[in-house]
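Duplicate of earlier report; JAB domain-containing protein input re-posted below.
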Amino acid sequence: MVHKKDEFHNVQPLKLTREAYKELAHHTEICLPFEACGILVGSSPDKLDRFIPVTNVSQNPLHHFSLHPAEWTSLLLGGMPVQGLYHSHPSSPPVPSSEDLNQLGSFAGLFTSYLIAGIKAPASVQQHGQKPELTLTSYWIRENTSTSPASYQSHPSGFTWSLEETRLVLHES
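Output:
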């Protein structure tokens, strides 16, 4: 489930360094037309300082992402403070798809933030060598306490998770 917020005054924003944004944008550009993915490292759950690309090994990378298992495991076990997950939607808006929500249980509990980028005019970007315009949507991953079957994503682990949209603030490192 996605909780959309018209106003974010009650929700803590996520802060992303401009350098991490540049790294994320560059990786997204070189992955076109496929979905890009990676992790976000930070000094705290709300402060994302660095983007680390992870290879998308999905069988259908035009519309899905799957983190390379060895890269993903190495990053998780490498001692870095992994705080979030990122992926792009090159041909759709930057909102979680049903597959994104279904996969949420595989990632939730490992980190607390989730960023999705939409790409403005990806076809023209490729044909004319232009830089893509990214629209980032940011979310907090929340453990869902609702008992209503219509309001949660179930997972075999027994935990349920939802996404709460929040404001993203770019800042200097």
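The chain has a mean pLDDT of 83.

Merging into the original ticket.
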